[in-house]
Amino acid sequence: MSRRVVRQSKFRHVFGQPVKADQMYEDIRVSKVTCDSSFCAVNPKFVAIIVESGGGGAFIVLPLAKTGRVDKNHPLVTGHTAPVLDIDWCPHNDNVIASASEDTTVMVWQIPDYVPMRNITEPVVTLEGHSKRVSIISWHPTARNVLLSAGCDNLVILWNVGTGEMLLALDDMHTDLIYNVGWNRNGSLLVTTCKDKKVRIIDPRKQQVVAERFAPHEGLRPVRAIFTREGHIFTTGFTRMSQRELGLWDPNNFEEPIALQEMDTSNGVLLPFYDADSNIVYLCGKGDSSIRYFEITDEAPYVHYLNTYSSKEPQRGMGFMPKRGLDVSKCEIARFFKLHERKCEPIVMTVPRKSDLFQDDLYPDTPGPEPALEADEWLSGKDAEPILISLRDGYVPIKNRELKVVKKNILDNKPPPGPRRSHSGCDPNVSQPALQEVLEEIRALKETVQAHEKRISDLENKLCQFTNGTD
Q1: Integer Cα distance of 135 and 155 in angstroms
Q2: 73: how many CB neighbours lie within 10 A of its CB?
Q3: Which of 99, 110, 131, 230 is the most buried if burial means most Cβ atoms within 10 Å?
Q4: CA torsion 431→435→441→447, rounded to 10°?
């Protein structure tokens, strides 16, 4: 009678490997702000990192291919008046990124395909609605232009970036600081963790809590929660004795965990990065020098430890590449961008295979860059699964698509009440010819500025072509 001792899994031998020194991003002053965000966001075109900046908040955006030492005068994305706390790339447009800041605003930026010559200072749209610092932002996985923000005012706001409007405000649901927010696969539900020790599952459009669990982990330190592919909740937290712990929960039966495992004793909050295609969750602790990874299955013990990638240097933050940005020819199933104090180090997770052919079992169809819904459709109650693409021939990023913001004129539907009063401090006795002369001068100045802007833009494009030709 044969007895299987070792669990069968195609991911049992996944191993992590750092890239060579010349493929790292050197000389980056990573932000020292005290915040549990990952400080890094990655997509198939760019890597964005929150950096130290005097006189406001900034982050740097580098094309993936621009490895090596980063020029100290490399342009930054600056516009916030206080440190940037979180950044997130739009899943439906690889040139659009959102940033959240201590200055209570959320800004959305259009990043050009070429490297600009000056700092990017003008966002496409600024979203103002929070009264305290904004520490969390997350794009909707299937609806176009829907962005979530959560701040230290215990408020979760959903925005339509295409119009710059607030869609929904979830203001009476959290009694304390929100630690993290995550969408489910089709964006119909949210999971949130809070300082009041509750994990909540929220239907944002009905503005109601569908399920909640008090103290899934008994410790006082922050808890993180994400949705899995099957709709379960994966959490990381601390025991009463400050040991780190992970848990898997069924929202329909929140009382008893499906799995609960103690790990080690450390202070760093475990950031979970989840790959829905392989059902692997990677745990990266801030201040740790390792990445642990687990496979979630429907067999006991349900959360199976696979392996640990270890290094000498602790991580300040971590970026996680979407599946469409991976190299399928090398059986790469995940790529992390580990932040050190002065550099960013890509780490490649690989499944060892002898064949060079495309591995269908490792790469099922994965969410692509096309949204399944418009913002208005989603708000009206419609849901849709992500539109999937095949990675058989690799993924080629789409060229720059401009984000158009159409703001509604609030003056059209809100006439001013009462008699009209002049708030101008101008002298009413100014003669008509003098006023006309000033207006003509302003018009001429505007034309001059526009001409200079066009000339600068043409020179930047020529310089970009020249440098691309010489590289």
Answers
A1: 11
A2: 8
A3: 99
A4: -160
Residue 456: strand, helix, or coil: helix
- Residue 393's Cα: distance from chain center in Å? 26
The end-to-end CA distance of the chain, in Å, is 64
CA distance 280 to 273: 9
3-state secondary structure of 3: coil
Q: How far is CA 382 from CA 202, 228, 377, 448, in A?
A: 16, 21, 6, 48
301: preceding bond cis by omega (within 30 degrees): yes
Closest C-alpha among 295, 242, 232, 302 to residue 269 = 242
Strands 77-80 and 303-310: unpaired
Q: Which two tokens stand for residue 187?
A: 């964006």
Consecutive sets of 10 residues in the chain, 471 residues long: mean pLDDT of each? Answer: 66 93 94 90 96 90 94 93 96 96 96 91 95 96 97 96 94 94 96 96 96 94 95 96 94 94 90 96 93 93 94 94 93 96 95 86 94 95 95 80 65 39 44 78 82 81 69 48
Number of DSSP helices (H) and strands (E) in the chain, helices first: 3, 32
Beta bridge partners of 284: 271, 291
The helix/strand/coil state of 222 is coil
- Which residues are registered as beta bridge partners of 209? 202
Token pair listed for 451: 């001409």
d(CA 157, CA 167) in angstroms, rounded, equals 8
Instruction: Give me the torsion for CA of 402, 46, 78, 138, rounded to 10°.
Output: 80
* Contact (CB, 8 A) for 413 and 205: no
For tokens 């904004």, what's the residue? 134
- CA-to-CA distance for 281 and 303, rounded, in angstroms? 9
60: Cβ–Cβ under 8 A, 6 or more apart, which residues? 28, 48, 49, 51, 70, 74, 76, 77
DSSP per-residue letters across 235-259 = EEEE-TTSEEEEEEEBTTBTTS-SE
CA atoms within 13 A on the CB side of 268: 20
- Per-residue DSSP letters for 414-455? -PPPSS------S-TT--HHHHHHHHHHHHHHHHHHHHHHHH
Q: What pTM, to 2 d.p., does this model score?
A: 0.84
Positive/negative CA dihedral, 69, 75, 77, 81: positive
Tokens representing residue 105 in the block: 């605003």
